[in-house]
Amino acid sequence: GENVEQHPSTLSVQEGDSAVIKCTYSDSASNYFPWYKQELGKRPQLIIDIRSNVGEKKDQRIAVTLNKTAKHFSLHITETQPEDSAVYFCAASTKNRDDKIIFGKGTRLHILP
Amino acid sequence: DAGITQSPRHKVTETGTPVTLRCHQTENHRYMYWYRQDPGHGLRLIHYSYGVKDTDKGEVSDGYSVSRSKTEDFLLTLESATSSQTSVYFCAISERTGAETQYFGPGTRLLVL
After folding, report:
1. How far is B50 from chain A (nearest CA, A)?
2. Residue B104's closest CA among B40, B35, B54, B38?
3. Over the stretch A65-92, which tens digit does the pLDDT of each residue have?
4. Is the CB of residue A83 less than 8 Å away from at least one CB of chain B?
5. 8-state DSSP, B39
6. What are the backbone dihedrals phi and psi of residue B7, each rounded to the nearest 5 degrees, phi first?
7. Is A100 close to B44, i.e. CB distance below 8 A?
8. Phi, psi of A55 (to 5 degrees)
9. Which three-class secondary structure string do you get for chain A?
């Protein structure tokens, strides 16, 4: 089945700098790649997603890139702010079915003042 | 937040006792999911449902069963709770498939002594 690896597990970034989180997936048939943000004590919430027919997608300070050949995708956060501190999860849809997604293990992002 | 509630929000139980967690939605979404979240493991899918009385297993289904008799309710049962099932349980819903935005409930914190 699908396997999603996420790196790093922890990331500390100075406020105002950029943060990059990377994920790899195993199933070349996967076609949907969402990113979720979970603040401390809260529920996960979708922040951006990308489908396999697109190489890059942006939403204000957040962007996601997808390299289908290499089977990896990345989340880029620019001009980081204190409210960006959270755990971020990547995920990928499963082979030949759109019923479910498999999550990576998460990256805890700390924004340093 | 989408109209998703979970009950109870917190529960302490003893090993060997049965436990049922309830997820209720008011969005009329077709898909419903149960995840568990543990440190270092991210979000792992337990079971999911793609319609009334239609369910399937996820990555970590052993020791859990589910039922969905109505569109709005998805029940997760631990037949005989074990300490390894101590976790935070999240319910999620999506409208048509798993390969689109999943909206998470507030979570249930379960402690098995």
Report:
1. 7
2. B35
3. 999 999 999 999 999 999 999 999 999 9
4. no
5. T
6. -145, 140
7. no
8. -95, -25
9. CCCEEEECCEEEEECCCCEEEEEEECCCCCCEEEEEEECCCCCCEEEEEEECCCCEEEECCEEEEEECCCCEEEEEECCCCHHHCEEEEEEEECCCCCCCEEECCCEEEEEEC
